[in-house]
Write a structure and sequence with these properties.
about 475 residues, mainly alpha, Hydantoin permease, binds phenylalanine
Length: about 475
């Protein structure tokens, strides 16, 4: 074990283990469920384009920032901020809160997935009648007891893995589940693309219609980049904290968004062409995965089996993400309150389960309760966490790394300000941040670009989109 690691905290067994676990956190319902329906609702290609731009500017930049803070401090989200600058601990707390909120509704959707595995296995949706499938889905999520039962089951699985710790829990499962997921989604995509009329869906998905780009579309894309990459809430800080000091952070920070984006695109190409082939409205919203996909499967040879396999893998994708959400909270309590992992996991998972109940009920019995912008409880919690807390966490992360931590490093390097030009200052700044990211180990050629992004472009861009989107 690495000498820098706090004993008993745990550490990744290998670099590929970390990449798969972090990519497992990133790849989840955000890719399979949210991305296709957000694209559908927000003008298809227009949304995809905006998503890419934000991913390039903000995604890679913040991924590196979070992993860096985590690996450097070897602490949970709150502890990490606090260790570098004590007055910044509250930013980490916002993150832990976001994780708590996200998992509460995430697990409800995870529960729907489990229910759909059962439905697929018992041949319940052996029809390509999209209307019938739609009714079935609505009926299911509107009922009170069953979705809560499945939500509990999902939380139990999440708990079961997190309790095993980093190597024996999170890493072990990610290494099995992630490659399997990838193969399956490619298969489903091929089937979807070979349906009659599929090309209309491909066109919709990849052809940007610039007139569709509005403030709301940009905010949804920004929220989605954060959500999909598990950024802005200390998740990657936490995962990064189990890395050894010799990991190449820039390299890892590249792989994780790449894998995540590949899966989001594959998911879009698996789902949207089928939507068009069946003449189903592309802006159907959250029901896409649960209504359209079963219709696709019913058209395939051995579709029943495909359905079971696909929803099982969607479940794996969801679980490799939910464990990271739970781990953010657990690692805080274990590090700071010195609880055992077992106690922390059980208690926090129970609390999150309880928080999820209103989210589940908001699909049926409590659907009249509207919290934010006319949204039901589940959508409101999602909005607060993904579109408010995550971008806010992202802005603060940029400021923290570039202006608080970075500036201090610059001051450490340079003894005097006398006679210094802007250029020497910028070079020193780059050196300081380079040192931060690599702990002096790896030469990172793109450092100056990263410094510019994290100091200026990313925080300013996020702030503008954030403010515009909130008030639009
Ligand atoms: N990235 C996950 C997904 O796409 C969700 C997630 C968000 C996980 C934030 C961890 C932190 O499904």
């Amino acid at each position: 074990m690495d000498a820098n690691v706090t004993p008993g905290r745990g550490q990744w067994g290998s670099k590929i283990g970390f990449i798969l676990a972090a990519a497992g956190s990133a790849v989840g319902l955000g890719n399979l469920w949210k991305f296709p329906f957000l694209a559908g609702q927000n003008g298809g290609g227009a949304f995809v384009l905006v998503y890419f731009v934000i991913l390039l500017v903000v995604g890679f930049t913040l991924m590196m920032a979070e992993i860096t803070i985590g690996r450097h401090t070897q602490l949970n989200a709150i502890g990490a901020y606090r260790k570098i600058k004590p007055s910044w601990g509250w930013v980490g707390s916002l993150g832990v809160l976001a994780g708590f909120l996200i998992l509460s509704f995430y697990s409800v959707i995870g529960g729907w997935i489990i229910a759909y595995i059962v439905k697929a296995a018992t041949g319940t949706f052996n029809t390509s009648d999209v209307k019938m499938l739609g009714d079935m889905f609505t009926q299911f999520i509107q009922s009170a007891g069953t979705p809560i039962f499945y939500h509990g089951l999902f939380m139990l699985m999440t708990l079961g893995i997190v309790i095993g710790g980093i190597q024996q829990g999170i890493e072990k499962y990610s290494k099995i589940l992630m490659p399997a997921l990838f193969v399956m989604i490619v298969l489903v995509m091929i089937r979807s693309l070979t349906l009659d009329g599929a090309m209309a869906g491909v066109k919709f998905f990849l052809n940007p219609d610039f007139s569709k780009i509005t403030g709301t579309v940009i905010l949804s894309a920004l929220g989605q980049v954060f959500f999909s990459l598990s950024l802005g809430m200390g998740c990657m800080i936490t995962y990064g904290s189990y890395l050894s000091k010799d990991t190449n952070i820039p390299e890892c920070s590249l792989y994780i968004p790449l894998i995540d984006t590949a899966v989001a695109l594959l998911a879009g190409l698996a789902i949207l062409p089928a939507v068009f082939a069946f003449n189903f409205p592309a802006d159907a919203g959250p029901g896409l995965l649960f209504i359209t996909l079963p219709a696709v499967f019913s058209k395939m040879p051995m579709g029943g089996l495909m359905g079971v396999v696909f929803f099982t893998l969607a479940l794996f994708a969801a679980v490799t993400s939910s464990i990271s959400l739970l781990e953010v909270c657990v690692s805080y309590v274990v590090d700071e309150w010195k609880w055992t992992r077992k106690k922390a996991t059980v208690i926090i998972a129970t609390l999150i389960f309880l928080m999820g109940i209103p989210c589940s009920l908001s699909q049926g019995p409590w659907s009249e309760i509207k919290l934010i912008k006319g949204k039901c409880i589940l959508d409101s919690v999602d909005f607060i966490a993904s579109n408010v807390l995550l971008p806010l966490g992202g802005i603060l992360l940029c400021i923290f790394i570039a202006w608080v931590w970075g500036l201090r490093r610059v001051q450490k390097i340079s003894k005097t300000d006398e006679g210094k030009t802007i250029i020497t200052w910028a070079l020193e700044y780059t050196d300081a941040l380079k040192e931060i990211t690599n702990d002096g180990q790896v030469n990172f050629a793109l450092a100056p670009i990263w410094v510019f992004l994290i100091k200026w472009l990313a925080p300013v861009a996020i702030t503008i989109v954030f403010i515009q989107g909130i008030f639009s």
